[in-house]
Description:
Rossmann fold, alpha/beta, binds zinc ion
Amino acid sequence: MLSERELKKYDRQMMIKDFGPEGQEKLKQAKVLIAGAGGLGSPISVYLAAAGVGRLTIVDCDTVSISNLNRQIMYGEKDVDRQKAQSAQETIAGLNSDIIVRGIAEKIAEENVDDLVGDNDLIVDAMDNVPTRLLINKVAIKKSIPVFHGAVYGFDGRVTTIIPGVTPCLRCLYPKIPPSSKFPVVGVAPAIIGCIQAAEVIKYIVGIGELLTGRILIYDGLKSRFLHIDVKRKTGCDACGHI
Ligand SMILES: [Zn+2]
């Protein structure tokens, strides 16, 4: 049940058509795993917390470095050298005391990914490398839960929502693993893409609107353009082909 305080806090979003206190209650009951607490994970965590998602788990094994601060807006200069998971937990807990937030300082790997996903209802993919994204993809397919995928490069980004067995999975979209190296990024790119991922999560939980399923939304920041590409499941995909 929503408290008096929560009814006040979320008043403006509950005014949205078909949202109401019922939608807010769904957000309160939701359990969300945010994989990565960097440029994407920052706005995702902040906006899901502000919207009242009841349980947030944020996983990141890194510490904050000075070169993160142009885009990782959960942290400030005082956080340099601190664990991101710990620092993120404090920032998010400070934004909304009506939710439960837990930061986990672990590297997502084959051995622990199943436990980390646990009983979460969905995963937000805020990673910066394809191998870890594919691990998340695999567990999401196994548990039949959605993945909200976002990626950025420079001024650009892309976002899509993956429903196992219905839409292409990440393996369908990334048949080859691109080499991972340091890449350029300006903070507004993950802010825009992360906010779209968070909007998708909120719509999915509340059950309103249309999702970015079966299509990728591409943001061309330098040209200020959004475009769509329709995508289909890959026949014989080694991750999702069996379902
Ligand atoms: Zn697939």
